[in-house]
Amino acid sequence: MAVAAAVAVMNLAVLPAASAQDPNTGIGAAVEMEATLVRRVQTRSDAWKNVAQFIPIIGWIFAMSQRVNVWERHMRLEGTFLGMRFSGTALNLEIQSYGPMGPGSFSVIPVNAVFETPAGRLHLNVVGPPGGEVRVEADPSKGTGAFAGVVARGTLRIFTTQEGNALVRGRIVVGWESREQAEQALLRVYGGDDPEGVRRAVRSAPVEPMPFPWSDKPPARTLVRWGVVRRAGDAAEVRVVALAGREGSEQNMVRIRIIAVSSDGSRSDVFDGAVTPGEQIDRTFRVKVPAVVMVLHGARAVAQFTVGAEE
Question: Which comes out higher in pLDDT, residue 162 or 299?
Answer without folding.
Answer: 299
